[in-house]
Amino acid sequence: MPRGRYSLHDTHDHTPLGEEHFHCAPGPSGWRYVSQTITPSGEHSGSVDLAIDELGRPIRLELNAASWQVRGAAIDGVTWVRTDPTGTYATEGNAPAHAFTGTSPAFLVATARLLRLTPASPATRVRLVRFTDPVLAPLTLDQSWALLKTETHATDTGPLNVDEYQVTDLDTGERQAVHLAGDVVLAAPGIELEHLESPPSTFA
User: Fold this and answer.
1) Which residue from 50, 70, 47 is spatially nearest to 60, judged by alpha carbons?
2) How does residue 204 score in pLDDT terms, banded at 50, 70 and 90?
3) pTM to 2 decimal places
4) pLDDT (tens digit, 9 = 90+) per residue, 119-148?
5) Contacting residues for 20 by C-beta, under 8 A, at least 6 apart
6) For residue range 182-196, what is the model confidence (pLDDT) as tens digits?
7) What distance lies between CA 96 and its chain's CA centroid?
8) Is the terminal CB of the chain with fewer CB neighbours within 10 Å at N or C?
9) Confidence band (pLDDT; 50, 70, 90) for 154?
10) Which of 96, 91, 103, 104 has the alpha carbon at shortest distance from 128?
């Protein structure tokens, strides 16, 4: 079960946004990721609980940030309920999308698992619902994912396969590089892996 810490920063001016302390693991029905986010001053700022099935579809999502909460799942596309900080109002949303995304590195692993690309695969389009910080407002976006290459690196615990993806925002044309090893993000825009207590898990 990988357990560790990511540092998060603004992708434009590199302002530190805090840290995400996580643990994750594959299971008989899919994969689960749980984390707590911490501000640069050390205060708790939110949490992520994401479970996907063996095909990479989100079967349960719970996000908390700035007292806002979102719960969602893959139902008729994706469906979610967003609750305000007072708990007075809850609004339901639905979109013809494949999965969710957001600031957490968990969503990069989940999307890669959903697409299951190979270096020979063509670039694949995927529609996602992104929950933006800090109020978890939903935004539907289209991305293109391509697996550029897989490299094997020698480590103290054995060979480590690293996948390099090119992720393109189809609205802006902006391209970004994402490096994954199993169920851990090694590097991505705004994300750095700072500490890992055990090797990444590999998917069957």
Assistant:
1) 50
2) low
3) 0.95
4) 999 999 999 999 998 899 999 999 999 999
5) 5, 6, 8, 35, 36, 37, 38, 48, 104, 105
6) 999 999 999 999 999
7) 19
8) C
9) confident
10) 96
Q: Residues for the chain: how many in total?
A: 204
Beta-carbon contacts of 159 under 8 Å, excluding residues fewer than 6 positions away, are 152, 153
pLDDT score at 98: 97
> What secondary structure does DSSP assign to 101-148, as a single string?
E-SSTHHHHHHHHHH---TTSPPEEEEEEEEETTTTEEEEEEEEEEEE
Number of neighbouring beta carbons within 10 Å of residue 5: 16
Please report, for residues 18, 61, 92, 189, 190, the alpha-carbon distance to residue 103 in angstroms, rounded to integers and kept in the order given: 11, 14, 21, 10, 9
Mapping DSSP onto H, E and C, the string for 13-57 reads CCCEEEEEEEEEEEECCEEEEEEEEECCCCCEEEEEEEEEECCCC
φ and ψ at residue 73, rounded to 5 degrees: -165, 165
Query: Whose CA is closest to 50, among 59, 61, 35, 65?
Result: 61
Specify the pairing of strand 78-83 against strand 90-95: antiparallel
CA atoms of 82 and 69, how far apart (whole Å): 6
Nearest CA among 44, 90, 94 for reference residue 73? 94
List residues bridging with 134 in a β-sheet: none
Strands 30-38 and 44-53, how do they pair? antiparallel
